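Progress note, sequence design subtask.
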């Protein structure tokens, strides 16, 4: 009887619990590159204490490009895409390794988005983006970083860099 009472108390909370995504990002986040947490909050204002760090101003197409999500303070989650500077469309794909707290997801194309897969606090996440073979163009990384459940920054962008077909 006690178990039934506990279950009846928890069932009304299940929709709220289902909206907490500490270990992954739901597909619906692709539309905004922002968290979908209740209570819904606006992004934090002012400069973000996080950066999408690139290490080169030019990269060859088809070769992985290192990029890092870096913070001056710890963060819990992130979501990043590479965008063509001309069209604004997400391009390329992400490569992740088991020791990195990240996973890929498919938004508009396979593996074109990378996000957190762990609720562990982090200050640096090294990533690898793979430009499409034969691609020529200017790219920038764009993302969101979640500091706490209700505090996050959107539209964090890297410096643009050139991808050249080899």
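Output:
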């Amino acid at each position: 009887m006690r178990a039934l009472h506990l279950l009846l108390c928890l069932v009304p909370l299940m929709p709220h619990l289902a909206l907490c995504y500490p270990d992954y990002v739901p597909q619906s986040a692709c539309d905004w590159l922002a968290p979908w947490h209740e209570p819904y909050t606006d992004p934090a204002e002012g400069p973000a204490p996080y950066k999408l760090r690139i290490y080169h101003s030019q990269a060859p197409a088809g070769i992985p490009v290192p990029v890092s999500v870096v913070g001056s303070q710890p963060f819990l989650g992130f979501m990043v895409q590479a965008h063509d500077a001309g069209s604004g469309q997400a391009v390329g794909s992400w490569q992740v390794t088991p020791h990195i707290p990240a996973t890929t997801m498919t938004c508009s194309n396979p593996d074109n988005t990378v996000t957190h897969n762990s609720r562990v606090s982090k200050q640096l996440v090294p990533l690898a983006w793979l430009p499409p073979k034969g691609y020529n163009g200017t790219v920038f990384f764009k993302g969101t970083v979640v500091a706490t459940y209700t505090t996050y920054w959107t539209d964090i962008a890297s410096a643009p860099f050139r991808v050249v077909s080899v």
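The CA atoms of residues 93 and 112 lie 4 Å apart. Work on this subtask will continue into the next period as scheduled.
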